[in-house]
Design a protein that fits this description.
Helix content: over 70%
Number of strands: 2
Distance between the termini: 10 Å
CATH superfamily of the largest domain: MFS general substrate transporter like domains
CATH class of the largest domain: Mainly Alpha
Number of domains: 2
Shape: globular
Radius of gyration: 22 Å
Strand order of the largest sheet: 1-2
Length: 436
Amino acid sequence: MASHLPPSAPADGAGLKPVPTWRRLAAVAALGVASGSPYVVGTKLLQGWLTTSGIPLGLIGLLAYAELPYTLKMVWAPLLDRWPIPWPDRRRGWLLLLQILLVAVIGAMALLRPGRSQASLLAIGLMAVLLAVVSATQDIVIDAYRTDLLPEGERGAGAAATNLGYRAAMLAIGAGGFILAGRAGWPLAFAAAAALMLAVLPFTLTAPPLPPLAHQVTSLRQAVVGPAREFLRRTGGPRAAMLLALVLLYRWPDGLLGVMAIPFLLQIGFSPEVVGSVLAGWGIAATIVGTVVGGLLFGRLGMNRSLWLFALVGAAGNLSYAALARFGGGMAGLLAAVGLENLGSGLVGAAFVALLMSLCNPRFSATQYALLSGVYALSRSVLSGPAGFLAEGVGWDSFFMLSAAASLPAFLLMTRLTPWRGDGVQGAFDPLRDPT
């Protein structure tokens, strides 16, 4: 007999009490704050401190290599499936340990004294790498917990809640941290970031527990090989290839636009100040609106229709840049293009996270989600890398038209995998057919 309840009746604890939706969404929102906080500390906040301390720009640029753990996290994700910490449950045990470590690491960074000496630079580099490793590991567990916790109908709202928590952390540390640093010094800004991380711990402790697994991962080999084997067995070879292609290509138009948007806006005459203020204010607001609307609509539309409709809005954002390139429009055109782009990005992001969650088996969710997100990352790097050469070759308006057309392969795949009249992704994990 399966130990999971059906997705329509999520449970709380050994007594299998129903958990209200708001508790699950509040939990994943808090974990969004936990995910965003260390990332902003290790990038924006640390960059600001080093810059004002007179560290050469070339050395500051090397901090980009400290972000490699976020790309490579799939390498050690199987360890978290193999060796869960059982209290409070298999995911929150790891979360509590990692969050305590993050509080300690960020707090220790407040004790650093940036300088040009080799010892000082080495200490900063090591702390940045350590922060990234612990933060990336926490992201693995957060993705797995959210995947295991949320029933299908709440995954769009859960993705929205996670994104809102992440954005809140970016604003609190990326904006509030800089203001605090200007008034009271950088060490206090880092100490405040550690305090924000500490404030997440009670939310993790009281978050809804996961039901136990009927079949635990019992060996490292099973943790490494099992996720791919289970995915292939569940989907079949050809369908597995199509699902991976959909994960790779669904957000490709978003990646192409993201690489070239700022160079385009600057080249057509908008000042850096205008571009920065519009993207930071209007753009973030539009993303938040898109995320919230996406979460609300997902519950009504379901997975398949959400994937179709949200991708159409995303492609419309690319076309709005093509219109700005061809017809102009001044500040009104800029606001329209940036607004539609970020609205579509919020919608697409909500549906995409829900898609990834639907493809993961709770036994291997840490590893499978890390692998799927790694496949997606290729669209932002490898597939979007030649965007500048393409823009130079065909011109801005044609480039943005082609970037919108880059959505066509995903639509073709969706006709097979997520048909408009279907009620789920072909090959998604079904706990009623394959209980864990």
